[in-house]
Amino acid sequence: MKFSTLIGTLFLSAASAGTAFAAQQSVTLAVDNMTCSTCPYTVKKALNQVLGVENATVSYEEKSATVTFEDAEASVADLTAATTNAGYPSRLASEKTKQAQ
Description:
single chain
C-alpha cells in the first residue's frame, strides 16, 4: 500500500512539473486613442477579460496600462489584441518585461 501511495505522489509531482515554469509577468503598454477620462475603464475591462490577467491599472494621463498576468495563460499579443479590439490600439511601452514582485 505504501508503494502505491509513493507512485501516486510521484505521478502527481511529475504531472504538475510542466506548470513549474509559468511565471507572473508585469508589462506596461502604451495605449492610443484614449481621449477622455472614462476611456481607461473600457481599456481595463478589455484587459481583465483576457484569461490569465491578474491585475490591470490604466492611466489616462500617461496613456498607459500596467498589466500583471500569468505568462502560461496570456501573452503581450493577447493583451494588445484585447485593447485593439476595444478600440484602443496598444503596444509594449518598453521591450523589457519584468517579473512581478
